[in-house]
Amino acid sequence: MTKKSFLFLALVLTLFSSPGIRVVAQENAPNIRVVVDMVQLNVAVTDNKGNYVTGLHPSDFAIVEDSIPQKLATFGEGNEPAYRVADASSTSEKTLAKAGGQQTQADPKSAGEDASQSLGSMVAGANVFLLFDTSNYMYRGFVFAQDAIADFVRSLESADKVAFYSYSRDLSRSAPLTPDREAVLRGVRATVAGDDAALYNCLLLTIKDASHFTGRKVVVVFSNGPDNSSMVPPEDVAELAQSTGTAIYMISTQLAKLEPVSTAVFERMTAATGGKAYFAKNWRDEQRAFASIRDDLAHLYSLSYYPQPNPNRGWRGITVKLVGEHLKKYHIRTRNGYRPQPNRFAAGTTTASASEAAPSNQ
Questions:
Q1: Which range marks the domain in which residue 239 is found?
Q2: DSSP state letters, 71-127
């Protein structure tokens, strides 16, 4: 078996190694269950001119998963903490009470307040993972790209946490997720260019890292060219991002846009996850692209729900609509679905019940 085959096998195994909610399967049946707890959506609402629409309320949104109407559990706008939606189902309220630290049935009002505080802390601000192309495509304009990234880091809201990674053939975790902007900036300045580009391999690993965190998860990629050494296809990367609720934003130079395949992949991947793709002609365009992403993060609505019973263990489509004739003229951007992530256990292994396991975000 070749070295590349070993690498591909390792990456595939990595995808299914995440901890999650574990449910006991029937006796003598394979212990393969899916993880579906709270599904979180980042939703951008814009008018025909591309301006953000603010001030909307939970009642203005309707969510459908596989043609099954869903009930909002939490709602938030921008970097403000999310709050519990009053008309959540009784099941959701009990789950929310547990998320707020209530171990037994308590007063509904106090349980709701505790749950609101707990869930608010989960979705206030964003966990932003920056992935910077340091391959040999980046020899020209490297310093300008570093400056644009540094300005973006400084401009993010104080509620946001930031991680800085770089990649060429391998992934370098220069600064782990932290609120310390100076630590991130030191990681940015320490990067050097060189070697081939394994964008999709490294992007998959970055999404895997982001999936361990609750709350809003965003990966911002700065890429100067196509991928020339990955073993992972971009479709698998996009699906993992959708299933973990991670939005992908990509900033690339005109060099990548000259290759139609890369252009199509970047645009399709970002759209599927609720993000955006930008193609910058020069360093000024790079700065504008980062500013646009910053504004997007500040205006996203945070919606979450606990899925209604759904036997589908495959791809689940999500549709978000605005309710009311006066709102139909606006446009919505969010991820279009997810695939519940399986957890596999050896037969006979004792596992925890769903009520005993910690919640996870999809």
A1: 126-299
A2: -EEEEEETTSPPEE-TT--HHHHHHHHHHTT--S---HHHHHHHHHHHHHHHHSSEE
Lowest pLDDT segment from 63-77, 93-107, 149-163:
93-107
Which residue, 139, 310, 112, 126, is CA-closest to 220? 126
Q: Which long-range contacts (CB under 8 A, 24 or more apart) does 288-291 make?
A: 289/251, 290/148, 290/149, 290/151, 290/152, 290/155, 290/220, 290/251, 291/152, 291/155
The structure's pTM equals 0.75
- 274 & 186 share domain: yes
Residues 96 and 156 reside in one and the same domain: no
* One domain, residues 130 and 272: yes
Phi and psi at 303, nearest 5°, equal -120, 140
Residues 266 and 135 in one domain: yes
- Chain mean pLDDT for the chain: 78
| Residues 204 and 98 grouped into a single domain | no
Are 178 and 119 in the same domain? no
pLDDT digits (tens, 9 = 90+) for 178-202: 999 999 999 999 998 778 889 999 9
Structure tokens given for 163: 């991680």
> Residue range 207-224: average pLDDT?
91
Domain count, the chain: 3
- Poorest-pLDDT segment among 79-88, 186-195, 232-241: 79-88
From the list 106, 171, 164, the residue with the least C-alpha distance to 135 is 171
- DSSP string of 278-304, one letter each residue: EEESSHHHHHHHHHHHHHHHHH-EEEE
- 250 shares its domain with 131: yes
